[in-house]
Amino acid sequence: MLGAMSSILTGAVWGDHCSPISDTTIMSSMATSCDHMDHVRTQIPYALTVGLVSILVGELGTALGLYPAWVGMLLGVAVLLAVLRFVGKPVDDYSVEEADAQIS
């Protein structure tokens, strides 16, 4: 029962995050003054990565009885940290003055 409920809620949050017609997606693109579809396109790789890791490591591993749920959570965190470490790129330092100069 816990697995089914968590899968339903996780799918709802994931769909809300990726949907271009979601109210939270529209509001966050409006709040940041960026093009709406550009915002959606930049969020999809992050959502797909977390979604795939959670399905493969969390859902399938625990559903097949390979390990308990808490182990799946720890493995998921470890895999996401590995993705961040080996695929992620550092963000350049950015000051408020530089941001204001780019907007003007």
Summarize the structure.
With 104 residues, the chain is mainly α. The chain has 5 helices and no strands.
Task: Give a structural overview.
It is a single chain. This protein has 104 residues and is mostly helical. It has one domain. Helix content is 78%, strand content 0%. It contains five helices and no strands. The longest helix is centred in the middle third of the chain and has 28 residues.
Radius of gyration: 18 Å
Termini gap? 54 Å
User: In DSSP terms, counting alpha (H) and pi (I) runs of 4 or more, how many helices?
Assistant: 5
User: How can the largest sheet be summarized?
Assistant: none
Give the class from helix and strand content and strand pairing. mainly alpha
The tally of domains stands at: 1
In the predicted model, the low-confidence regions spanning at least 5 consecutive residues are none
* Average pLDDT taken over every residue: 85
Q: How many strands appear in the DSSP assignment?
A: 0
- Fraction of residues in β-strands: under 5%
Residue share in helix: over 70%
Name the shape in a single word. flat
Strand/helix succession: HHHHH
Give the secondary structure arrangement, pairings included.
Layout: H1 2-18, H2 23-31, H3 36-63, H4 69-87, H5 96-103
Helix pairs in contact: 1-3, 3-4
